[in-house]
UniProtKB/TrEMBL annotation:
Organism: Lachnoclostridium phytofermentans (strain ATCC 700394 / DSM 18823 / ISDg) (Clostridium phytofermentans)
An example Gene Ontology biological process: double-strand break repair
InterPro entries assigned: P-loop_NTPase, Rad50/SbcC_AAA
Protein name (database record): Rad50/SbcC-type AAA domain-containing protein
Ranges in coiled-coil conformation: 192-326, 531-565
Keyword terms, alphabetized: Coiled coil, Membrane, Transmembrane, Transmembrane helix
Alphabetized GO MF terms: ATP hydrolysis activity
One Pfam family in the UniProt entry: AAA_23
Domain (Rad50/SbcC-type AAA): residue spans on this chain: 11-234
Domain of life: Bacteria
Record-annotated membrane-spanning stretches: 333-351, 357-377
Amino acid sequence: MIIKELNPGHFGKFHNVNVELTPGINVIYGKNEAGKSTLHAFVKGMLFGIERLRGRAGKEDLYVKYQPWDTPGAYQGSMVLSVDGEDYRIIRSFYKKERSIKIIRESTGRELTDAELGVSAIIPKLTESIYRNTISIEQLRAKTEYELAEELKNYITNLSMSKSKEVDVNGAISYLLEKKKKLEKRLPDDRLATLTSELKELQDTLKKLDDLSGELAELKKRSEYLENKQKEYNRSTNQERMKKVAYYPAILEKFNRFLEMKQSAKNAEEKVEGLGEKTKKQASELDSSNTIGEHLKELGELRQRKQELEEELKEKRQEIEPHLKQGSISGRVIGVIIVVLGLAISSIPFPFPFMTILIRCIIGIAFLVAGISKYILTATKEEKTKQKLEDMKTECERQIFYLHSKWHDILLSHRVSNESQLMVKYNDVLKNEVEREQALERKIEYQAAAKQFHNKADELEYEIIDYMKHFLGNPEASKECMQELWQEIEEFKEEIINEMSANEEEHTNIRSQMERIRWTLESNVECEVKLDQKQTEQEELCELRKELLEEIEAITLGIQTLKELSTDIHDSFGSTLNQMLSEIVSSISQGEYTSIIVDEKLNVSVLHLGQYVSLDKLSAGTMDQIYLALRLSVASLLFPEENMPILLDDTFALYDEERTKAALKLLAKETNRQVIIFTCHRREKELLEECKVPYHYVDLNEIGKKPFEYA
């Protein structure tokens, strides 16, 4: 695998930066805070993602550390890998709300469907723990972790047992452990404990039921004895009287009902009497509605006739008065004109000689007489017309007065002053008549009810007296006789009934006990069936538990065998790892340490001055060198076919110059392996140039200022 390109879009301090890398050795130089560790963390994040940590682990949360504070939503980047000659571009968003990953095959432009697996979709065996413990060394973290030992052990065991790296022994052990856990969960211990408790309860219940059955048999014998005793008593002479005594509460109830019927009949009769007096009073006090209705109708006719007379008088007056006025004026004017004309004729001189004074006088007198006559006739005619009009008026007023008198008589007959009051009285009369009719109906109902109450009281009285005859001489349905009856019955109870009361009470209690026992037995009739079912279920569960325990024991034995076999196989492969590690350490230390041994947990011991000493007894620089050699050895063992890149973050900080040069030469011999060195020193560059080792140089301080330098 070769990392060809890093593109932290928005990651830590980087924004839209492009870093190109080449096969072989790549030196990424930068001063402190230039972003070397950030770029190293970006590679890990692109391969495996970055999860946000919680709790105590949150103090070292890389998610928060590298999230851009100004654009948190743009927390993303991309990188280009080359695997088996094929380029893949990984595009990943780290933002928690929009987390995503895409892997695109550059040659075809197609997106891998299993991109959510991360780099495992391209290199299946590369896990985060292997990456962290082999090909990636962070600052001051050259030491491997325990989980690398487990990965290496699993790999060696797979290879030895199946001659293949595809079999996962650790996976097999994990599978067996998971299956064992599932089988342990299937163990019916809880159900068996519950069944044991239920069986004990059922057995106790059955024992109680047996005891109840015996008790029921005894009670049945006692009940039969009491029944026989009761039969003997019933054959005695007092049997009939005992029945009557038992019937006394019913008679007492009927007597109370008898009194109620008598009282109800009395109440009904009183109501009938009250309603009769009320209806008589109503009939005497108010006129009938028919009379008032006829008078109201007559008043209406009188009012209409009066209006017609007034209208007729008004019309005649309007018809005569204009003619009267016009004729009077014209007649009088004509008379005056004739008189004036006669005077004028008698005084005017005529031109004719034959007309004498006498003739003029005669003509003047004639005109004067004619004018006066006309005037007198007109005055007489006017007087006659006035008289006729006055006669008509008088007649109309007379008739109106007659109508008014009749109107007044009608109102006076009903003791009201106007028609409105008469109408109110008419409504009251109608209401009174409705109430009277309703009162009559209720009176009939109460009469029927009183009769029914009397009939019922008579029936009850007959039954009560018939009952009393068994105890009293001449009874009657009265309170005194009922009191005497009660005393007689109480005396009879003291003499006879008390004799059997204890017997009957005992019999009643026995029947009650027998009913309770029978109900208990019937409600638990399926108890034996349940007991059989529970016992069968218990036997089946015990058998299942036995089978599961045998299978769990077999799985435990298998896990133990796999672990022992894995340890034995690791011992056979230990020499290979030790030889590879010893060669690398000898080369780096320039022959000072030639023999290194590693146990199954990757604990390292070094041969020094004739004895093996623990790695922690050596200097820090030597420890880093040996751990670097261990990582290279394990990486070669885990990935014999894939040349994985090595990422070194200030790994040579504790090396002296000679061992640094030796380490660089060793890395340079790995011609097929990409090496990425993050450093804040120029020593690595100078030593590579001194050894004439080709390398690709990236200066983080100059990113964005000038092109990258190639040596």
